[in-house]
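Quick entry between incubations.
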Amino acid sequence: MQGRGNSKFQETWTRLKKNKVAFASLFILLILFLIAVFADLIAPYSYSEQNLTNILQKPSSEHWFGTDQYGRDIFSRVIYGSRISLSVGFVAVGVALLAGGILGAIAGFYGGRVDNVIMRCMDILLSIPSVLLALAIVAAFGTSIINLMIATGISTVPSYARLIRAEILSIKDQEYIEAARAVGTNDFIIITKHIIPNCLAPILVQATFGVATAILTVAGLSFVGLGLQPPIPEWGSMLSDVRAYIRGYAYMMVPPAVAIAITVFCLNSLGDGLRDALDPKLRN
Amino acid sequence: MVRYIIRRILFLIPTLLLVSFFVFAIINAAPGDPAQLALGEGATAEAVEAKRIELGLDKPFLVQYLTWLKDIVFHFDFGNSYRSNISVSYQITQYFPNTLKLAGLSVLLGVLIGVPIGIIAAVKQYSVFDNIVMSFAMLGMSVPAFVLALSMILLFSIHLQWLPSSGFSTFSQMIMPVVALGMQPCAICARMTRSSMLEVIRLDYIRTVRAKGQKEFKVIVNHALKNAVLPILTTIGLQFGALIGGAFVTETIFLIPGFGRLLVTAVTNRDYPLVMGGVLCVAMVVALTNLVIDIAYAFVDPRVKAAFKSSSSSFLAHMKMKKSLKNMEQSNAR
Amino acid sequence: MENSTILEIKDLSVSYTSSNKEIKAVRGLDLAIRQGETLGLVGETGAGKTTTALSVLRILPEVSSSIKSGEIMFEGRDILTLSRKEMREIRGRDIAMIFQDPMTSLDPVMTVGRQIEEMISLHTDCDKKELRSRAEAMLEVVGIRKDRFDDYPHQFSGGMKQRVGIAIALSCNPKLLIADEPTTALDVTIQAQVLNLMNQLKEKYRTAMILITHDLGVVAEICSSVAIMYAGQIVEYGSIEQIYGNHMHPYTEGLFDSIPDIEEEKSELKVIDGLPPDPSALPAGCSFSPRCPYATDRCGESCPDDVQVEPGHIVKCILAGKK
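Done. Structure below.
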């Protein structure tokens, strides 16, 4: 089992490396990660430090991307913004994955009424558009970063639950699982050792796209003022600030817009590449 | 067929009931006293208590829920806004048409451009056209609508002064919002159409049609597209729902008096009756969209129609098939 | 005119490209078929039979395959040089094809009647009414009630679908019919029915037919001549009597030996040792030599020439006629 898993991973990796766009995306994402982690070292200024004598400056050697309406350094804010966007994206997906995984595993493994109740609830979550669901949750619980993570994650819980449930249903009755049960292996070990490795591939793909969607959702919410509150340097809310100054100060728009686009683009094309690499049949 | 549609509508009822309960429960779990919120910070304790009784907040949770539900079902009454005290259903009827129009036009634009592009890209797989257009589709999926909206305002309203930057009543006012909101569905439709067409194009029956001596154009449109259309339809339905839910950003930028903006204001003001009514309303529209798409399936694919006509067991089988299709769609298009 | 050649394939080579490897599916194939004749094209899976058939209709997948060389003469014209429009006119009207898997060869969202009508409308000018009556007549020819005209493929069984496939192929009365393993996907009892039907119709319409199969029993029943194909080449060609009575290529011999014989009591089936060669890495010389029980050193050196051992009986083997 272990050996097969490894060779499959290697095969996937080889195929992924051949896909130039996906591989470049992975590389850029790694850089973005490093930027987020070492934001304190990279950013020349603090993200919240105001300097009212130096507002709305055009890009210069001192302020690479210029300054905003409070004289804050836009370059630094974009750098810190990567921290916010990536962490919200990944945590939201992580939470959703955990919740969806557990629910799906329970539903698939135990079947019957438990399955029915869980999957019915998942259907309900699916029947509300994701952004709206996030809106409702933010409305109820406020706009803290944790709430935003939950709000953007919750609408993707059903897709993970379904993936895992389907996977479990398809391998539950296979002989090696029965054999494992027969020798008295407990359910938890069966799930973690046999079932999870099997559904890793589709989940990885789904999760990659999920991070992209979560980042877009948070940016959208922040843009209309329902996301992270100032002075937190969220890319969406930075763009929202630009609106008032779009006449004459449009350069302020470029850095956060490009940052969002690059991040989401890379995640999407990495997801595409992963899907092709994991299942070559789907390509062509 | 009629029986199927009726059954499908009946199927909607439990779903919507559960959605309503879910929404009601979430909002009620919110911290803070709605009576206090309705009256504002300065209200006296007695006034708040009186308001609590007026709003029925002293009653048990389930009773509150059932009262709320009863008013919706029998009177289409979602209660009154805390802030303005205007009836929520009135506000919904006032603002919803704009959002429907915006989302509908955007999806239409997306389909009209995205589907043909997807077809050509699939037919000319790996060609320069395919590569360029699909890169643009990927970009379209990655650039948020508000970035495109701001860029368009900058270019067409501020620099060129061709288009007005706000409102949604004249044609020229509609262009930018529809393009901004339509970009994402366009990209997703193009990708979905391409992958769906690619799957069909190499099947045996397409070869059969070619062996008959049929023109390539007709092979693609009359046979391949007709068979590839199911996942595309699903995508269109999902996109319409997503746009209704996601229109608020575009509406905010272009100052469109739409439902999304109404909801955003409601959330900012913690105007709970409006939030609950709004979310429930959108859920209803989404459910109805799904129904329409389901019925459209039957007209496109005789196998689905056959499943509708026959017993309920194959009906359930069809529902399962649809679910797996949706799953496939999600992982494919996103 | 009765015995004139209607299709002649000369030195046809077709390759597929897959992840930068060239796969030689057909290599220098020569084949001819006369009017009214039924030719059996026999070989293992992957021998290039279907590729040959698709080349004749020019419906190979465009992206991944290419015809490297050769001529395909149909009624005196090389169809490889025809324009797309001219080729479309030949498809269906002059050369029609019956496909291997009836389950997947019909468009699932179009009624079977419409699928027959489509073929007729492409090659004749007739109004809607006539179109329908002709299509209904075709259904009845293949033994399907005409009131099933408006049914969809999923409402038919496999055998019935293949009958529809035959109806489509014969609806414009083609001069040449290519049947690509038409019965492989069917139940044994249905196979006989479908074969009989094809045989009858072929006689009735005086159509020449290429029957692609790997079943020598089927060939014996309806073919008048046989071509044995191995690794993209014809290794033996002759009349049915020549091949069944006096086959000479070691591969043909292997094929015949692997047919189980009820009379003889053997505990084991005879098989040809080894596997068909990888078409992207063919052996040097005779491609059958690695599996051939009579192989000599010379076999690995160069590809053997065609040897005419008796009139109309051709064998691609250096041992031919010397055994």
